[in-house]
């Protein structure tokens, strides 16, 4: 009973908080408190969050290192773009189609590589990403080849740039919230516990009756689906695709985000993805020094925080609100705590004076 | 006839991949770290050679000096990188070390771009004038012979170090079980540093050979060969020295034959396709130990 | 309860927005400097081109300001770095337009970066003139998109007719970068024109960006014994290919396009006897060319490449049009752009209906220089296919 009440509370607060943040961001954009440029970056950050979370699902939660997520994104992006341009599909269907197509690729790469682990899996996914690029470059008639695919219609065309920007942002934000919800619920379900047990020790989990192969492929396919949807959003967001946008170094970027945020932490990934998107823009003024700084920062961060920003912990809004409700941070509470603190200090001083 | 010619092209390319793959494999064998920065050591080695050869002119003697100089510099650098960046992470999750390696690689590549005397622009690498030998209608260039010859000498030398010296014995012991080796009185830190030094020296030699065969130096030059050598190392079974050599040659020949007889557009795809196929059949690579995890 | 949630949400949003940095600045008014944006790869793989182009743009703007500016106002050039990455081009474009309020853009440098922003520029009525994006489809997005260089199909035709008519070649081979739109575009137009003239393309081999070994492809090409070998790529790759062409014992005449610019400083005697098309010949006796080369060399210590000349011209084409339009109204500037007909560094320029410049290409020959392994360039022909 209490559990049910807790859950309802969680769902309610999370929905409320995300809706309020969403509405506030919309208002700020509409009244140009946030410039269009910043709005664009927020939208881009949202896409990065989606793809990074999908990578975290297999790398952070399932423990399988993938270096081919840009490849998944690429499949989703091209599928969505072609569905819209060539077949005039509406955006939601095209996005789902992009996700399904990518999930099929995920399945195709997931099953044969089940036996591989660690670095071998990493290099295989890397190879897969490169193969995808070679295929897309050579399918000129469908994908535009090396010259790229252009003329992908945007989310809306109202003629008012602010409204268009807001609609674009809404699409990405709502899908991002859905993805967060799906992954959060999965991780906290029995399936999620099975998946995490694979990361901790796959032999032990097999002996406990977990179908390791099934859950590995399951996680891989779901991750590919989400990355594909993220890729689809990316395609519509940019209106132009080029195979060079999905090189293996881009996959490495997503790995960096996941590790910096903390493997197995959803909030960590979200924070890292947003910071990463902004850092890339901020550091642009440094020109060639940008990547020098970036490399140095990576090394230092890893040496001092090898588990990333959050480790596998979460920043919990509901937990924070519960603390608020329990009165731990109520003004009266704070005041009494402060008084206690001062008294302690005072005593010390007095003691010394004696 | 064309087939034999393409085989020669492939073996010549493969020997460089092999040399680089050795550096990857040795480091992996000891500390289980994919040293992403290995390709960048190649670049630094090539630049060191570039400065010596520009300064001294191209003669066999200066070539030798270039090799010794650049291998020494890079060996020291390898130790410095290991001590400062990788050692603090030895007990951390392996992916943290991998990200650090990516950081080191980014730092070296882009550091080279902002250093004034290196800079972002490609520079011509001084080489000897190429002489072509015509053997029964097959064209073999002087460069190809030198590359193959030096690679083989270095591989034989490495084989001797690993299998014939006391240090080699310690390396093998550390690779087998680091904790046990430590308990047996082996100075594990020293062994790891030595391994990084040897790996980096091989990378530097590979860099000079690479720049001799493809006479151009630029900060990003290590990226592609680094990636290919990585693939070669995994192909042969990462951690295995003969595996890396074989992996390098297989990759070089497969790539060249694909370009020559299937389609040059698909060459990269085929190279990675072969890799995936081999790994699906043999998950630990050709010579990799198929370790069954003990419970 | 609700109050608390709201306050938490507000705090979070505030954090996010502070994080996001400043809001939008005032858009361009009728006073103050006229702002021109430029998007160039200052860092990243093609920074060598980007920095030269940037320098040329700044040099042009300084000249204009020294002469009193345009419309009685100073010109301000705001340069953003895109690292030759289309993703960055898009955010740089949005920043320039919405935060800085530029009225025109000189850029981007590579075609794939330009293609990422042409639709936006058209929709927002921002005059965009790319100095060096040669892909045919760049100007397709609409009537606000211009360029100061000729496009790939023109250049491919120039090289093909030069090969067939002047060099009397019948069999041609092509070695191109399959992952680069520039190289691929030139290959297609060269092939079409060469075959239309009556020649045959006997071999068409490719590689991927970053490849350094071309022996396999060259061995295959050697088997078909072509008269000419067309290598449409940038000089750093070409200089590698040229060495391997010689070591494979291939003797066909090598041909190239404007990407070969600067090859004379980056290759040895193996390229002697080759020809390439370019936007202008630096050894020409043209007063405009001489003045530009002299001034640029004096300011920056190196001789300008062709892309720098194109960026310099693009800046002047844009500012001339603004001056002629008499206002910063995009409609009027666009009309004035179409009326451009003046002699610039890279030649007499006017625009056709698709906003491509109408000008002729120059074929340049690489000859033995005064020192060994230091080839020199020599004007060979002016071609109009």
Walkthrough of the structure:
The complex is a heterotrimer of chains A (354), B (295) and C (385). With 354 residues, chain A is an all-alpha fold. Chain A folds into 2 domains: 1-34; 38-315, ABC transporter involved in vitamin B12 uptake, BtuC. Helix content of chain A is 76%, strand content 1%. Chain B is globular. In chain B, helix 3 crosses helix 8. In chain B, the strands form 2 sheets. Chain B has a two-stranded antiparallel ribbon. A two-stranded antiparallel sheet of chain B has the order 2-3. Chain B starts with a helix and ends in a 14-residue tail after the last helix. Chain B has 11 helices and 4 strands; from the N terminus they run H-H-H-H-E-E-E-H-H-H-H-E-H-H-H. In chain C, helix 6 crosses helix 7 and helix 12 packs across helix 13 (330-338). In chain C, strand 1, helix 2 (47-66) and strand 2 form a beta-alpha-beta unit. Chain C has helices at 2-20, 47-66, 86-100, 111-115, 118-123, 152-166, 181-197, 215-223, 235-247, 263-266, 287-300, 306-325, 330-338, and strands at residues 34-40, 75-81, 104-107, 127-130, 145-147, 171-177, 200-207, 228-230, 253-256, 275-278, 341-344, 347-350, 361-367, 376-383. Chain C has 2 domains: 34-149 and 286-354, Response regulator (Rossmann fold), CATH 3.40.50.2300; 153-278 and 362-383, Rossmann fold (3-Layer(aba) Sandwich), CATH 3.40.50. Chain C is globular. Chain C has 13 helices and 14 strands. At the A-B interface, helix 5, helix 9, helix 11 and helix 13 of A face helix 4, helix 9 and helix 11 of B.
What's the CATH topology name of the largest domain in chain A?
ABC transporter involved in vitamin B12 uptake, BtuC
Tell me the strand order in the biggest sheet of chain A.
1-2
Spell out the helices and strands of chain A N to C. HHHHHHEHHHHEHHHHH
Mean pLDDT of chain A: 86
Euclidean distance between termini CA atoms of chain B: 55 Å
Helical content of chain B, roughly? over 70%
> Total domains of chain A, how many?
2
Strand content of chain A: under 5%
Q: CATH class of the largest domain in chain A, anyone?
A: Mainly Alpha
The helix-strand sequence of chain B is HHHHEEEHHHHEHHH
The chain-level structural class of chain B is mainly alpha
The helix count of chain B comes to 11
Taking pLDDT < 50 over at least 5 consecutive residues as the criterion, the unreliable ranges of chain B are none
Secondary structure tally: strands of chain A: 2
Please bin the fraction of helical residues of chain A: over 70%
Largest sheet of chain A: 2 strands, antiparallel
Q: Assign the CATH architecture of chain B.
A: Orthogonal Bundle
E-strand count of chain B:
4
Largest protein interface? A-C, 52 and 54 residues
- β-strand amount of chain B: under 5%
